[in-house]
Amino acid sequence: MISIVGIGSGNRVEELTIKAYNTLKNSDIGIYPGNFIGEELKELFEDKTMFTGRDITSEKIKNIFHNNRDKNICLMVSGDPALYSGQFNTNLCLDEHIKWFNEHNYNYEMIPGLSSLSILCAKKSIDLTPFSKTQNVFITSIERLRDLKCFNYTELKSILSTKPVLALYQSLKEFDNIKSLLMEFYPPTTKVIFAQSLSWSNECIFETDLKTLNETESTTSQFNDQTLILVYPSTILTIK
Amino acid sequence: MISIVGIGSGNRVEELTIKAYNTLKNSDIGIYPGNFIGEELKELFEDKTMFTGRDITSEKIKNIFHNNRDKNICLMVSGDPALYSGQFNTNLCLDEHIKWFNEHNYNYEMIPGLSSLSILCAKKSIDLTPFSKTQNVFITSIERLRDLKCFNYTELKSILSTKPVLALYQSLKEFDNIKSLLMEFYPPTTKVIFAQSLSWSNECIFETDLKTLNETESTTSQFNDQTLILVYPSTILTIK
After folding, report:
1. Residues B175-219: pLDDT tens digits?
2. What are the Tetrapyrrole methylase domain coordinates in residue numbering (chains A, B) (predicted)?
């Protein structure tokens, strides 16, 4: 059996669900392609086989599955597997893995995990949909849209014109390009939060507002590609 | 200390994070205003005080906090506390609780949980953002927008015109009213999933497509207000 398990930040066992924890404990082999897996989680695999690091390519992962059909294998995914898994042209996303499992008649299950958006909201006590604000939440990744050649400025404009709460995954490189759109539609007091390495020792959560951002040339240099950006309108609804 | 804890479906301990589980176990008092809390979770409070049911009003909750300042109190919230907590004019949302805690100098923390969207995706092996599709996910609640007198048909239209993956919380009563908008913008093969009572014994996940829905007079009568509706475009991107 293959389990695709969401592991939240990847650095804290306490962020795993009990089901995810038990699945990791009961697996024979653990796979995490990349470096965002910490010691606490690695310890769960002390007496098992674990494959991790940037050199664990999708081809290698397929070989591990192929050579261990009788084993319980756990493929770990940062955050929740349903949102922005994989890396274009580098690591398969969840959907590509599932297609491959179906083609090759593998048994698999998917175990949900905390998204970085949920983790960030909890750390900052943020209610994405309070009764005093819009109930609209828009989540996207500008870099992935670019990678897939389907970024559409006009489309983004018509969405942002409705001023939803905005969660941007993997969008940092493009942030300066959409800043003017944000300024056009959101009030200058709109809160903008950059969150990087949540729940890791180098966690950085930087809160600012659109007005300040607009007066700064570029704020993005101190952050990396994995930064989550939350744009949170401060407008209070006037209930009629 | 007050902990606001996301409990996922509210019926399965295995859906709790380890931190949420430990917080429930270590609390003196548990509060869940409503009925969507199952036996497995109630058992965690066997030797403690628990307040649950529809008669646990926000006023009663404030009194419990007030009369137990020295205790560890756990306020449980379905799904993830950041998304669609509370019920308009009936139960306070997260943000209202937090404002009240701040006003009265209470210590509190927020512990994230699995949203019903994450739980549904895992059950149906759905990747919300595969490389073959748009990376845009739009989450809203039409009924809450109506309650707050800020539902705007034109705004919704401009968002749906971009064909995002659409997750509708608390929107069932309004679904028939927006069906024509969906038909206008999404391909007829677009998958529509109605999910009710996820992880409860009466769990119901009904999959259909827009074309079938459009040929049916009303499909919503078998579902309740808490139904999550996922609109998942089947269009495959042609990567240029």
Report:
1. 888 898 999 999 999 999 999 999 999 999 999 999 999 888 776
2. 1-213
Q: State the nearest Cα–Cα gap between A210 and chain B, in angstroms.
A: 22
**Helices and strands in chain B, H and E counts:** 9, 10
First-residue to last-residue Cα distance in chain A? 55
Nearest CA in chain A to B4: A122
What chain B holds in terms of domains, given with CATH numbers, is: 2-111 (3.40.1010.10), 116-232 (3.30.950.10)
CA of A62 to nearest chain B CA: how many angstroms apart? 18
Report which residue type is found at A119. I
β-strands B137-140, B165-168 pairing: parallel
Q: Is residue A222 very low, low, confident or very high in pLDDT (cuts 50, 70, 90)?
A: confident
Say which residues have a Cβ less than 8 Å from residue A63's Cβ, sequence separation at least 6: none
What is the pLDDT at residue A23? Answer: 98
Which residues of B are less than 8 Å from A164 in CB distance?
Answer: 138, 159
Query: Can you tell me the distance from the alpha carbon of B116 to that of A116, in angstroms, rounded to the nearest whole number?
Result: 16
- Percentages helix, strand, coil for chain B, rounded to the nearest 5? 35, 25, 45
Q: Nearest residue on chain A to B156, judged by CA atoms? A: A162
With beta carbons less than 8 A apart as the criterion, state whether A167 and B80 touch.
no
Find, in chain A, the residue whose alpha carbon is nearest to that of B135: A140
Encoding tokens for residue A119? 């983790």
Rounded Cα distance between B199 and B183, Å, is 30
The DSSP code sequence of B168-206 is ESS-HHHHHHHHHHHHHHS-TT-EEEEEESTTSTT-EEE
Q: Which tens digit of pLDDT belongs to each residue from A92-121? A: 999 999 999 999 999 999 999 999 999 999
CB contact under 8 A, A19 and B18: no
Q: In 10 A of CB B29, how many CB atoms?
A: 19
Residue B16 and residue B8 in contact, taking contact as beta carbons nearer than 8 Å: yes
C-alpha–C-alpha distance, residues B155 and B142, integer Å: 12
pLDDT (tens digit per residue) in B13-32: 999 999 999 999 999 999 99
Whole-angstrom Cα distance, residue A187 to residue A207? 16
d(CA A52, CA B54): 48
First to last CA, chain B: 55
Note the ipTM here: 0.96
Quick one: pLDDT at residue B216?
81
